[in-house]
Specification:
Growth Hormone, Chain: A, mainly alpha, transmembrane
Amino acid sequence: MPQTAPASAPVDRRSPQRPARVHRAWFVAAVTFVTIIGAAGFASLPGLLIEPLHAEFDWSRGTIGLAVSVNLALYGLTAPFAAALMDRFGIRRVVALALLVIASGSLATVWMTAPWQLVLFWGVLVGLGSGSMALAFAATVTGRWFTARRGLVTGILTAAGASGQLVFLPLLAWLVEHHGWRPATVTVSLSALAVVPFVWLLMRDHPADVGLAPYGGTYAPKPAPVPGAARRALRVLLDAARTGPFWLLAGTFAICGASTNGLVKTHFVPAAHDHGMPVTAAAGLLAVVGVFDVIGTVASGWFTDRFDSRRLLAVYYALRGVSLLFLPMLLAPSVRPPLLFFIVFYGLDWVATVPPTIALCREHYGDDGAIVFGWVLASHQIGAAVVAFLGGLTRDLTGSYDTVWYASGALCAMAALMAMTIRRRR
């Protein structure tokens, strides 16, 4: 008797003898890449806002850093719930709503007059929206649509954030310097809105929606929606928290966030400006970080498919720590070769930690790996939030960022040791 497709799976009426030359998974990955780029403007702006807001409103750098900290913390804490919501309502609905929230929060800052409004609009609204667009989004897409080449695709999608930084940062820096900070926030809002149609029209939640198997895998019916997204996210956290690898991954990723988003992305531009460097030149250097971040992250994804993820993490964190220890000696009024070398080196290492971290979450936690990574990402953002605030506070109290650079370098050395103690799952 001939077999029939399961009742729960839609029937693919295209001839199975003539498969598409390019698997649909690659188109979904392309839409995901464009979506992350379009939403990346919000991540480029905080470091550019510190000086203009301080000059216009006379708000302290610590106060502005608090709003950035709330943004970074919510970015991380929202991620695991967003991954669960994608299992409940689908990727397309969650991401489209997140982009609308980002656009609303960014646009509302144009009319703010008090620090609490900055915390509400930029910290809370943009934080919640960006958390739903976090790396858990990339982990969910690769987990559903790819069986083969997961590490490589994860690296490419992770690099999309850096590509967005490359696209937006020089433009936003130019707008801030020549037209003020308000046109820059409007640009971020419009860029998020522009991506919504791409997500709604082109994104698909699961390969079974179009009658396909994941790339490199076998066909499986689309799973039923998982109710109780918040309850599931908390249950996964409680289960993972009973295991040692979770705490080691969360600890190393907290240090990753502290040394990237919390420190360099938030405070590099004002720190360079303290040494006499023009804001546009400092922003241009961060854009160069974005160029080499793409190269480093894609290469890291390729390495993750072939080498021990624990050893990769140890190497990445150790090299990052060494580079941070040298940075205070490299800042100057103009861009010199040693500082440019630091920028290239740091760019290659910026988010190279993401593909091996996601791979270790999948290795240890299976189908819950994307949600576990969401919680690990939450620790990343909490680390970033703490340093974003402490960096501004340290600058207010001491007049220098040097202490924060040295402390972050020491933390990265600790992360390298922690990565090597993660046990392998056999």
